[in-house]
Amino acid sequence: MDKAEYLEPDLAFIARLKRAGGESVKKCFQCATCVAVCDVTQSDKPFPRKEMIWAQWGLKDKLFYNADVWLCHQCGDCTMHCPRGANPSEVLAAVRSLSLAEHAVPGFLGNMHSSPAALVPLFAFPIAVLLLAAMYANGLAIPAGEIIYSRFFPLAVIDSIFISAALFALITSALSVKKFWGGMKRNAPQKAAPDAAAVFGALKDILFHKKFAQCRANKPRYTGHLLVFFGFLALFATTNLVMLYHYLLGRETPLALGDPVKLLGNAGALAAFAGVSYIIARRLAAPKETGNATYQDWTFILILYAAIITGILAESARLANIPAAAYPVYFTHLVFVFFLIAYLPFSKFAHMLYRTAAMIYAASNSKTS
Ligand code: SF4
Ligand code: SF4
Question: If one looks up domain 107-367 in CATH, what number appears?
Answer without folding.
Answer: 1.20.950
